[in-house]
Each structure stands twice: as C-alpha cells, then as structure tokens.
Design brief:
About 20% of the residues lie in helices and about 40% in strands. With about 90 residues, the protein is an alpha+beta fold.
Length: about 90
C-alpha cells in the first residue's frame, strides 16, 4: 500500500492526539481491521474510517483514496462506539 499525508497535518495530529499520521499506517496491518464509510454533508471526497489494533490498543484513522494512494487525514484512539463496532464482529 502507498500512504501519503500532509506533513503540517501530521504535526497537528501529533499535538492533538499524541501520534503522527505515519503511525496510522500500522492500523492497516491488523488482519481484523474494520472499514466504514463516513458520511458528512459537504465532503467533496468519499472518506473512510478504519479501526484496527496496534500494540494492543484500538486506533481509528480517517482517510481518502487519491489515485493508488491512501491519504491519511486523522489518526486517534478509538472511542467507545468504534471499539464496540470493532468487537461486534
């Protein structure tokens, strides 16, 4: 997989959530990852939410497809609803 992200956005994500966008690549290594479409009125691109396990903790990333690349937008710890969704399978 090819990943990309904005360096300034990654620094902002690190300050806000304690991890860089680069960290989000690890979510895609979880064989049990959960991908959900995100629906927000006004989004110009189809966004997706991926929930996966990294180092025994659940993380959530928001991303879009840009050609062949996955462009990471945000990475953070999964909230309660996301954790339930991940474990409901």
């Amino acid at each position: 997989m090819i990943f990309e992200y904005d360096a300034a956005k990654s620094a902002a994500n690190l300050a806000k959530h304690g991890v860089s966008l680069d960290f989000g690549q690890g979510i895609f290594d979880d064989l049990n990852l959960l991908v959900l479409p995100t629906i927000r009125h006004g989004d110009e691109e189809e966004r997706y939410k991926v929930i996966g396990n990294v180092d025994d903790r659940l993380w959530t990333a928001i991303y879009v497809y840009r050609g062949e690349a996955i462009r990471l937008i945000s990475v953070r710890r999964s909230n309660g609803g996301e954790q339930r969704a991940y474990h409901s399978d």
